[in-house]
Design brief:
Elements (H helix, E strand, L loop, with lengths): L2 H11 L5 E4 L1 H4 L7 H9 L8 H10 L4 H7 L4 H28 L5 H10 L5 E6 L5 H8 L3 E3 L15 H12 L1 E6 L2 E8 L4 E3 L10 E5 L5 H5 L5 H14 L3 E4 L10 H8 L4 E5 L4 H9 L5 E7 L3 E6 L2 E6 L5 H7 L1
Parallel strand pairs: 1-2, 1-8, 2-4, 3-4, 8-9, 9-10
Antiparallel strand pairs: 5-6, 5-7, 10-11, 11-12
Helix pairs in contact: 4-5
C-alpha cells in the first residue's frame, strides 16, 4: 500500500477517540526500566536473599527472561515480597528522575500530545488501561489541565490559583475533562496498611512503615493476585471501558496478560479496529492479531535503516521515518 493510503487507514481506524492501552514499552522512552533492567536490578541484591532458592532463580535468569525465571523458581513468600520491594524502589527512582526532568521541560512529552488528541472529540474524556506502575499518565493529565479518575482522589502537579471567576471556570473545566486511568497491575502510589486498608500516597520517597506496596510484579502470582482488591475492581472497570470503546490504540503492550486482555480480544474479534505501536511486536501480539485473522488491525513497528514496518490484514509495507515511536506517530495521526 502507498504511504498516503497507509496513513489514511490508520486515521480511519482511530477516528472515534480510541481507548489507549499502555505497556512497559510506552514508558521506556522516559527512562522507566524494561523487564531486562528489572532483572539486572534484582540480581544486584543477591546478598539480601538467603538459601538456595535465589541461586535457582539466578540460574534460571541466565537462560530466561524475568517473568519466565520467576515462573520456573520456587520462591518463598518472603523472597517474593523482597522482589516486590526491589522492583518498587527501582521503578520509583526512575519515575522520580523523570518527574524532575519533566517539570524542567515538558515540551517533548508525547503522552501529553496523545491525551490532548484523544480527549478533544470524546466529550472531554479519554480512557487509559495500563499494566505500568509509574505515574507517567498522571503527570500528563495534570499538564493538559484534566482530572484523573483512578479510584483515588488527588493531583500531582499544581499551580497557585487564587479564587476568581476565571479560575473557578478553569477548575470546573478541569473536572469536566477527565482521564479514566485503570492501572491493572497497581501503582507506585498504592499501599496496603498492616491493618488491611488500601491507601494512596503520591510521590513517596520510600515505602511507608507498616505498609506494603500494591504492585503486581511479573510472574505466575500475578494471576492469583488480581482476584483480590484493589485489582479486581480496577480490572472490572478496565473491562467496562474495553466494552464501551469504539477502537483501541496499544503502545508498547506485549499482549502477555491473559487475565487483563480477554475483553479487549473479544471486542477486536467482533470487528472493532486496533492499532499497535511497538519497537518489535511480540509473538503474543502476532498470535492474537495476525494468526487470529482479526479483520481490522494495524501493527506498526521498527524496521531496519530508520524505517517503519506496517502490517495489516491483507497487506504490509515499509515506509520512511520512525512513526512506530509515539512522538513521531503523533505527527502523522
Amino acid at each position: 500500500m502507498e504511504y498516503d493510503g497507509c496513513i489514511y487507514q490508520i486515521q480511519q481506524y482511530l477516528e472515534n477517540s480510541p481507548l489507549i492501552v499502555l505497556g512497559s514499552g510506552a514508558s521506556i522512552p522516559y527512562g522507566l526500566p524494561s523487564m531486562s533492567d528489572l532483572a539486572t536490578e534484582i540480581g544486584k541484591h543477591s546478598t539480601d536473599f538467603e538459601g538456595a532458592e535465589f541461586d535457582e532463580f539466578c540460574l534460571n535468569l541466565s537462560t530466561m527472561n524475568l517473568e519466565e525465571a520467576l515462573d520456573a523458581s520456587e520462591l518463598s513468600h518472603e523472597a517474593q515480597n523482597m522482589i516486590r520491594q526491589i522492583v518498587w524502589a527501582y521503578v520509583n527512582r526512575s519515575d522520580k528522575a523523570f518527574f524532575y526532568r519533566l517539570i524542567a521541560d515538558s515540551s517533548e512529552f508525547a503522552i501529553c500530545s496523545l491525551l490532548k488528541k484523544v480527549i478533544q472529540p470524546a466529550q472531554n474524556s479519554v480512557n487509559v488501561v495500563t499494566t505500568n506502575y509509574d505515574r507517567v499518565v498522571e503527570y500528563a493529565t495534570d499538564l493538559i489541565g484534566a482530572t484523573n479518575i483512578t479510584g483515588f482522589e488527588g493531583a500531582m502537579i499544581k499551580e497557585m490559583e487564587l479564587p476568581s471567576n476565571k479560575t473557578t471556570t478553569q477548575r470546573i473545566r478541569a473536572r469536566e475533562r477527565t482521564v479514566s486511568l485503570w492501572k491493572v497491575h497497581g501503582s507506585l502510589d498504592w499501599f496496603r496498611t498492616d491493618g488491611g486498608k488500601v491507601r494512596a500516597y503520591p510521590l513517596t520517597e520510600s515505602i511507608p512503615l507498616m505498609h506494603s506496596p500494591l504492585i503486581i510484579p511479573p510472574g505466575k502470582d500475578k494471576y492469583s493476585m488480581t482476584h483480590s482488591e484493589p485489582y479486581r475492581s480496577v480490572i472490572s472497570k478496565a473491562d467496562e471501558s474495553f466494552s464501551k470503546a469504539s477502537s483501541y490504540l496499544c503502545i508498547g503492550y506485549g499482549f502477555n496478560d491473559e487475565h487483563v486482555q480477554p475483553k479487549l480480544l473479544t471486542e477486536i474479534g467482533n470487528g472493532k479496529p486496533i492499532v499497535v505501536l511497538a519497537r518489535q511486536a511480540t509473538l503474543a501480539c502476532k498470535k492474537h492479531l495476525v494468526d487470529a485473522k482479526i479483520r481490522k488491525y494495524i501493527i506498526i513497528e521498527e524496521a531496519p535503516e530508520g524505517k517503519t514496518s506496517v502490517t495489516s490484514n491483507g497487506w504490509n509495507g515499509v515506509y520512511d521515518g520512525h512513526f512506530w515511536e509515539l512522538s513521531e506517530f503523533m505527527k502523522i495521526w
